[in-house]
């Protein structure tokens, strides 16, 4: 569903504040996690240094839900380790994913790990376009309805089935970081992990946080260099999903995007270039942004009509090559550019 090819790439980013005098001293913590980068700012009235707490949470998360960590709980469950038992994070991620899958008629599916591996998405190898025969053979052990938790244990209809939470994990980890800050009484913070953002309270200028959305054009590889728009954000999660950076070419020179359609089990092909979703949590925004990139523009519009709690900024290509923008009415108040 979502994989990062090459360097960490972000579709949205928190913009730096201007030279307005700051009334509060915000701490900043940066680093690497989940195959990407993270950037966190917070104001703690007690002046605590929370770097260790932040790093420990991210390490614990990697040990739980990372598909790239050979000793993580997720890897062990994928490999049918009889002693591996789903923890709270795994269970919640699967539950959130199942809800989005049901709501989108399966456009969101976390059981595509075998397919992603077969396409070689997220690796340094040249992507491989699968034949219909290969797809049909893998289809037998994919499908979100073929996995569930019963009596605290993970149950698969086929032992070859493997999960990949990359389309929701970074958003979920941003929510966990926010929950940690909430528990410590910190009311002003911004969490960005791999481009998945959660904001609370105010920025150092005492205003709403500002998020820049990159223009979804090939060649725009530096976050913040060419912005599509700037949005005001607080007390919400925001995620941008797109294929303009996360793609590669197969052995025949065909473009292979990172977004796989769970129905066809092939890379999604349509005119939607990027989907920015704002939701009550970053995990929900993450999942629905991915779903929109699977189903395309027109179906995304219908999906969003059913969800007034979601806000969306969709960028698409027109037949003449120009770019168009679709916005839900509730996001327009946030647009600064």
Task: Give a nutshell description of this structure.
By secondary structure, the chain is an alpha+beta fold.
What this model shows, in words?
- By secondary structure, the protein is α+β, with helices and mostly antiparallel strands.
- 27% of the residues lie in helices and 26% in strands.
- The protein has helices spanning 51-65, 73-78, 88-103, 113-119, 132-139, 169-183, 282-295, 297-305; strands at 12-14, 27-33, 36-43, 147-150, 153-156, 188-193, 196-200, 209-214, 227-233, 236-242, 247-249, 255-257, 260-261, 266-267, 272-279, 311-317, 323-327.
- The strands form five sheets. It has an eight-stranded antiparallel sheet with strand order 2-3-6-7-10-15-16-17.
- α3 (88-103) packs parallel to α7 (282-295) and α7 (282-295) packs across α8.
- The longest helix is centred in the first third of the chain and has 16 residues, at 88-103.
- The protein is globular, with a radius of gyration of 20 Å.
- It starts with 11 loop residues before the first strand and ends in a 10-residue tail after the last strand.
Give the overall shape, derived from the CA principal axes. globular
Order of SSEs: EEEHHHHHEEHEEEEEEEEEEHHEE
Low-pLDDT stretches are 1-10
Radius of gyration: 20 Å
Tell how many strands the DSSP assignment holds: 17
Give the averaged pLDDT, no decimals.
Answer: 89
Adjacency order of strands in the biggest sheet: 2-3-6-7-10-15-16-17
Share of helical residues: 25-40%
Largest sheet, in brief, is:
8 strands, antiparallel
Q: How many alpha or pi helices?
A: 8
Query: What class would the helix/strand composition place it in?
Result: alpha+beta
